[in-house]
What we know:
By secondary structure, this protein is an alpha+beta fold. The chain has helices spanning 5-14, 53-59, 84-97, and strands at 21-26, 29-34, 37-43, 46-49, 64-65, 74-77. It has a six-stranded antiparallel sheet. The protein is elongated and about 65 Å long.
Amino acid sequence: MASDLSFVEFVVDQFEQDCAITYKRMFGEFGLYSRGKFFGAICDNMLFIKPTDGGRAFIGDPVEAPPYPGARLSFLIEDRVEDGEWLSELVRITVRELPEPKPKKPKKAKAPRKKK
Length: 116
């Protein structure tokens, strides 16, 4: 079941402004980014955050589940989705530990078509 855009917007609205959260539709679900760094997903109207040591220490005893079949385990955030201060701190901690995104390769220019 795909996530509802209204749920995604609700979750994104919980984060504090300094987190600079954006989202992108991915395979019928949504990827979450902070300043261009992928940190989580919303799948089946559930919030998943990439696991990090700092995030685990912050949460204490996180619930872990795959966001979709075959995916690696992520932290499943269920009961604190409306706690913007807590969510924002979790994302700050998580994003600090995640590697920088790899630079995108420039697209190759297509050769012009020859006229017949």
